[in-house]
Amino acid sequence: MSRLRDVQWIDALRYAVPVLAVATLGLAWGRVLPPAVAVILALLLAGAVLSAVHHAEVVAHRVGEPFGSLVLAVAVTVIEVGLIVSMMVSAGGETLSLARDTVFAAVMITCNGIVGLSLLVAALRHRVAVFNAGGTGSALATVATLATMCLVLPAFTTTTPGPAFSPPQLWFAAVASLALYVLFVVTQTIRHRQAFLPVTEEGEVIDDVEEHETQPSTRLTAGSLALLVVALVAVVGLAKVESPAIEAAVRAARLPQSVVGVVIALLVLLPETITAVRAARRGRVQISLNLGFGSAMASIGLTIPTIAIASTWLSGTLLLGLGPMQIVLLALTIAVATLTVVTGRATLLHAGVHLVVFAAFLFLAVSP
Asked: Where is this protein localized, as stated in its record (predicted)?
């Protein structure tokens, strides 16, 4: 009986915390927070992350893969893009490189951090992490193309001085990015859905929709979808509210200002990270990779078109091109991920290589 009451309390918290977090966010937005309030908001942020993970899994259980991963990745990215644009509009010329820094951090976190951690958990639990090389390879190819076209090419074009696109170049990149992302989503969810489903060691596809006889009701799924959006709004918003405290800590530690963006990106991507790791523990590595590469793809494919539209009323030139060090890290990430994906099987060594690249990104962000 006591265990049943504990379960009921946990379920109640999963529904109450997102609403409470958003209400608190509204009260705290734009205010200078004393340390005690900042700690309370950090606890609400952690609760919102855990709630988002739960509701994302409810939705994924109902709609199946790869739709579940797509819902979470797109929801996080849309809210994150809204935050980026609002900060760029409010701060003006001080944030001309914000989109570049945020997107690059998201790519490194997802393609190395989430992927590496998921492979590590799966390899420790099942010795070998097994996934569909065909579907994952096409996702990686799309990420590599988008990242190169939107983050590397601006550093080499000559029409506009600096690491920036000219207006026609920016619009071309925006349209091409959105078209490529939409094409991938159609491929992933309709034309070649089987290529993005988990597989067994023998290569047999596991369809979670067919595997589970009992699924959440339509009402429960709709409620979880709404609360997922609310929780993600709370996660991103609270990360923004906590950013002054993070900035103060960064200044006190005499670290580069870019560290602030990395920390915020880590907080925003926490729901996807936890969901990916839990999927890897169950042997559903394909779900983890769908989340990792899908989030990187959505971050580029949705951010670049949005800032292209926002550039019509923003003053100054948007800085999109990466520096030499970042280009090397991106090239290394693509090369390592290609060698990981090509066989459809990964070991502890593959996981370790990804995590070392991720550690190098974090270290160089702190000590460039």
From this structure: Membrane
